[in-house]
Amino acid sequence: MKIMKWLGFCGVVLLAGAVMWTTTGCDDDDDSGGGSITVIVTNAAGEETSIELVAPTPVTPTEGQELGNLIALASIDVAFEWTAVPGADSYMLYVDDLTYAVVGTSETIALPMGDHRWRVHAVAEGQKGPVSDWINFAVVQTMLQMAP
Length: 148
Hints:
The protein is mostly beta strands.
């Protein structure tokens, strides 16, 4: 299978060898949010199909969410979830400075107390789609409430 991909980045089109790709959308400060990437796949019979990758929409945790933990020094399992992108083979999940390759639209990761951030992008035929915006959240210590 030959992958053809054109890359358009802020009006610039690049072609590298037998690989071509198209990207629409542009972001000023980083590669987050918006736009799409069209991956054109040519099979052995010469038939082309295209897959348009968009940034997945983060579902949980949400912006500003505080996840409670009763024990100050312990980590908790945080469930990350995002919307599916048609044509995606897998996803790359970024949590703080770590990267996780994920098949499916969710992943659970143990995180310590403190502030965290996450974002995700789809992957099709080995090509990365646009990445979602960063979502900031926190793992905080919660107090056990006693009934009167």
